UniProtKB/TrEMBL annotation:
Keywords: Hydrolase, Iron, Membrane, Metal-binding, Signal, Transmembrane, Transmembrane helix. The keyword Transmembrane helix applies. Residues 74-289 form the Calcineurin-like phosphoesterase domain. Its cofactor is Fe cation. The chain crosses the membrane at residues 28-50. Its EC number is 3.1.3.2. GO terms for molecular function: acid phosphatase activity. This is Purple acid phosphatase.
Length: 364
C-alpha cells in the first residue's frame, strides 16, 4: 500500500510566526514589567560587554501540551548545523530540545552534520568539542547517544577527529562515522532503520580551486573511490534491510528552497538509490532552515533540519510560498522530532520557543 500522509500547515516564514506569537502575548502587569524590564536591560547591557549573545533575551517557552499523545515506541530528535559555542541561538535551540526531549523521553539524537563551526575539529583535543557540544546540550533528556554524520564545515578541519572513538572518552554520548546504519525495533515485527551517509565528498565545487583551498580532505583515498563506496554501501544496506521504515540521513539537500537550494550531485547520485529502494524519508541539514518538501513525482518526503544555530533569517527562494511541494519552509532556528510506531511515523518541527510549526504523519 502506498504511504499516506497528512499535513498541518504550509509555508511559514519567521515574520508570520512572530506576528502570531505577539498576538498571543498578554499585556497585564504592564507597569511592573516595564520597570523590571529596564532593570534587566541594564544588567543585560553590562553583561553584554562580557558575552556577545546576551542582548537577545531567551525566548519564552511555548507550552508542549498534546505532544505526549503523539509519542511513539521510538522517539528521537534530529538537528543540523549547530556547533557555535552556544551562540547564534544554539543555546536556545538546545533548551527546547531539552524540553521536547523530556516530554517525548527520547531514545537518541541524530545530527545531520556541520557539527562544529566554522572549521570542524582540528584534532581530538580541540576544545570546540566541549564548548559547542558537551557544555551546550546539558539537559538531562539529551544525555543519550548522539549519532552524527559529517557536513562540509566538518571537512574544513580534520574530519577524522570526529569519527575517532577517543572522542567518546571526552563525552560518551558522541558517535560519528562515514557510513553506518541504526536499526531500531518499534514492534514485534517492525523496525525503523536510519542509513547515515557522508555527502560532502560528492559535491564537486569543494574539490575545485579556489573553494578547494578551504577543505583539508584527510581521508586517504581518492574522491571517486570515497563516493563510489558510499553509494555502494547505501545501496547494499538498503537492499538487505527489511525495515518497515527506511530513513536516509545526509548533510546535503536533495530538494530545498533555502539559500543553498538543491544539491545536484546528491540528486543525481543518491536520489535514484532512494527511489529504487522505496525509502520513506530523506533528512538533511546544510540549508539553515526547517523544510518539508513532498513532490508529486515521488513518494519520498524530503526534510531539512538545518536550524541548529544561525538560521537563514530571510534567505529563501522568492517563490517558496507559491510552491505546492513546499509543505513547510521556515527560515528561523529549530529542530525536529520523529516518533515511530509499527504503522506510523510522525514528524514535528519546532522553533526556538518549542512551538510546533508544522507536523506530518506517514502511515503504512
Ligand atoms: C534568534 O532567533 C530569533 C527568533 O527567530 C531571531 O529574531 C534572532 O535574529 C536570532 N538570532 C540570531 C543571532 O540569529
Amino acid at each position: 500500500m502506498a504511504p499516506k500522509y497528512q499535513d498541518a500547515e504550509i509555508g511559514l516564514l519567521k515574520e508570520e510566526v512572530k506576528r502570531q506569537h505577539h498576538h498571543d502575548t498578554k499585556h497585564s502587569w504592564h507597569t511592573a514589567a516595564v520597570a523590571l524590564f529596564s532593570f534587566v536591560l541594564l544588567l543585560g547591557v553590562i553583561f553584554a560587554f562580557l558575552h556577545a549573545d546576551s542582548l537577545n533575551p531567551a525566548p519564552e517557552d511555548h507550552p508542549l501540551d498534546g505532544l505526549k499523545l503523539d509519542k511513539g515506541s521510538m522517539n528521537v530528535l534530529i538537528i543540523g548545523d549547530w556547533g557555535r559555542k552556544g551562540q547564534y541561538n544554539q543555546s536556545f535551540v538546545a533548551r527546547q530540545m531539552g524540553r521536547v526531549g523530556k516530554e517525548l523521553d527520547v531514545d537518541f539524537i541524530v545530527s545531520a552534520g556541520d557539527n562544529f563551526y566554522k572549521t570542524g575539529l582540528k584534532d581530538v583535543e580541540d576544545d570546540n568539542f566541549d564548548l559547542s557540544f558537551t557544555d551546550v546540550y546539558t539537559a538531562e533528556s539529551l544525555q543519550k547517544r548522539w549519532y552524527a554524520v559529517l557536513g562540509n564545515h566538518d571537512y574544513k578541519g580534520d574530519e577524522r577527529a570526529q569519527v575517532d572513538k577517543r572522542l567518546q572518552q571526552k563525552d560518551t554520548r558522541w558517535f560519528c562515522d562515514y557510513f553506518y546504519t541504526i536499526p531500531v525495533s518499534v514492534g514485534p515485527s517492525s523496525t525503523v532503520e536510519f542509513f547515515m551517509i557522508d555527502t560532502t565528498p560528492m559535491v564537486e565545487k569543494y574539490w575545485t580551486f579556489p573553494e578547494s583551498l578551504k577543505y583539508s580532505w584527510r581521508r586517504p583515498i581518492p574522491r571517486e573511490e570515497v563516493v563510489a563506496s558510499t553509494l555502494a554501501n547505501l545501496n547494499s544496506a538498503l537492499e538487505k534491510s527489511s525495515a518497515t521504515w527506511k530513513i536516509v540521513i545526509g548533510h546535503h539537500t536533495i530538494y530545498s528552497f533555502g539559500y543553498h537550494g538543491d544539491t545536484q550531485e546528491v540528486v543525481e547520485k543518491v536520489l535514484p538509490i532512494l527511489k529504487d529502494n522505496k525509502v520513506d524519508l530523506y533528512i538533511n541539514g546544510h540549508d539553515h532552515c526547517l523544510e518539508h518538501v513532498k513532490r508529486d513525482d515521488s513518494d519520498i518526503h524530503f526534510v531539512t533540519t538545518g536550524g541548529g544555530s544561525r538560521s537563514w533569517n530571510g534567505k529563501f527562494a522568492k517563490d517558496v510560498q507559491a510552491r505546492s511541494e513546499a509543505k513547510l519552509y521556515y527560515d528561523g532556528d529549530g529542530f525536529i522530532s520523529l516518533s515511530a510506531s509499527p504503522s506510523s511515523v510522525l514528524i514535528n518541527f519546532f522553533d526556538i520557543t518549542g512551538q510546533v510549526l508544522h507536523k506530518f504523519k506517514l502511515e503504512k
